[in-house]
Amino acid sequence: MSTALESTGFLLGVASWLIIGAALGNDYWKVSSVSGGVIISNRQYENLWHSCAEGSTGVAECRDFDSLLALPGHVQASRALMIIALLLGLVSMIISLLGLKCIKIGSATEETKGKITVTGGILFILAGLCVMVCCSWYGYRVVQDFNNPLFGGVRFELGTGLFMGWGGATLAILGGALLSCACKRAKSNKPKAGYYAAGQPKTIYSQAKSEPEARAYV
């Protein structure tokens, strides 16, 4: 059962990494709103890297953001969190693959492999939390600007990239939680050093004390 859980968690982690990467490259993190009585002939949309405008003919023109330091703070933080999440996910996949119960590598014990798998699961959870914070913060700013009556710019709505990010973050956290079930393997099943497993429990001290007495009677 643990093998199935760990394999499922690893596959969910790989799928989450792919979805997070696709979300980072998606152009539609926020899309211009079409609500209201005014009919617009073009559509605007943005992501973390550039903004685009699409005309009625379907031709889109994109412009990269000129300066990193001139960007709003939430955009800079979102870039950093998404890149950190992808790096954590990559490391998590490598570590989790080495620790899976169905993978045999050298003479590693089950306890050691269990600890490796748990480490990979924790990294997957951290990656999912980074993406969750990024998408939630970015989405909050979009909703805040949309509902602000004093905002004079273009009103945007939540785009596809945010929902992909939320989905990838959920899969990463779920996969990490399943991989963390290997903590049972990480616990040592060896008996304590001061006791014997067979027969009645005796301490090493009591056995060592009884041996000279036995020799004396002989």
TrEMBL record:
Entries under Pfam families matching the protein: PMP22_Claudin (PF00822)
GO molecular function: structural molecule activity
Record has Cell membrane as a keyword: yes
Keywords, alphabetical: Cell junction, Cell membrane, Membrane, Tight junction, Transmembrane, Transmembrane helix
Entry GO terms, CC: bicellular tight junction; plasma membrane
Bilayer topology annotation: Multi-pass membrane protein
Cellular localisation: Cell junction, Tight junction; Cell membrane
Predominant location category: other
Protein name: Claudin
Source organism of this protein record: Esox lucius (Northern pike)
